[in-house]
């Protein structure tokens, strides 16, 4: 399948035309319908350009092409990795993309991540829940739709500002400015970017996975991330008690997701398969095997077993044949079966190879710490079979990044024979170490972790699952401490509003951000001079320039 290069103009990717062409097309339509009086060609063109994505499927098809092109670019150059931050609300996603465009000019290789953890903790009607797939499955596509609603509104708002600037240039007779603004409109880059959306373990069997996948794709998701845990026993990847399923069960869910993409016409949709085998020591069932060495037999070979004879067999035993011997897998009172200790890495590698050979596009290996060589060791083995294998990796807030990297530097220094006597390894988190050479080296390794692991460990996409959960808590704590303390109103003005103004945060004009200027312009389109607009001289938003 051919995918359009990311370097092309967004309008070409979206099938849009130039501003002037849109105006001319609208003018021809209106001339053919003379009773549509009072409707202007320029207003129609503007509203069309402000709504380039008519449906969630338009979003999914466009963002899939973007992500596919980015994957191809990464295969050629590992410095072109991609990144995302998890967002639990459409407003957070919108502000993230507005900020990216403000600071970097373009949104290239920046995505959104939708975390099942944050939906469970923040978006369930049951209230805050742990990450165990207990939240309503419908809340997942609902959040995807919300994310894209806010991103499309960001498009509309930015273009509306350009249209107003264009009108001002025309009113002033400034032809050069008019030409400049039209060029900006024609070269406009959308805030709509790919979302990698967490479908957990599918919320049921393969049919349930398919039904939910359809809803997520219809809402705009171009990439679905699914994990190999048991659906009704699912745990957060950084919790204990994880239980995996045999490969055949998981492959059926991969096919279910692919069928959903193909049914809806998103032929280049992306499936990200996550393996929790590194931290999962249990399985719910013994895999079906029809011959030695098949996939079921390989899965069962990792079970923790003991040889039995007719004399040592017990009532209720499950017994399997392994290499001609009768073996009893260790079964817990929960009726789960136990894997042999130390097999997690081998199981991860087998999971990844099997997934890529059966329709997956990207891998996700859930690890217990951020260690490049640990990841690279597994990827090296996978790439011996699948040379272009690449990962999405969770730069998780569940890791203590400071402590992990200080430990890594400490251990490297000690192994190299350097003097580490002034450091207490057990207390390296303390602030007293912040300005030491060890801590500075650790911080530098953290800073370059994404670039280094993209090059060494095949990580195409770096994401932080829960960052905006933590930033919301931190900023609220800071505001509460100041506002309800001695600083009073200055706690808000100095640390929030004054900072917004000086940093150029668009949201300081919260009426504009919520769409008041767009609404005013629509009123003028609809009612002309009779429109009652909100943005007049007495609007206090004018205080912000």
UniProtKB/TrEMBL annotation:
CDD domains: ICL_PEPM (cd00377)
Reaction catalysed by this enzyme: D-threo-isocitrate = glyoxylate + succinate
Taxonomic superkingdom: Bacteria
Entry keyword Lyase: yes
A Pfam family matched in the record: ICL
Keywords, in A-Z order: Lyase
The keyword Transcription regulation belongs to this UniProt entry's keyword annotation: no
InterPro entries, per database record: ICL/PEPM (IPR039556), Isocitrate_lyase (IPR006254), Pyrv/PenolPyrv_kinase-like_dom (IPR015813), Pyrv_kinase-like_dom_sf (IPR040442)
Single GO MF descriptor: isocitrate lyase activity
Name of the protein in question: Isocitrate lyase
Organism: Bradyrhizobium aeschynomenes
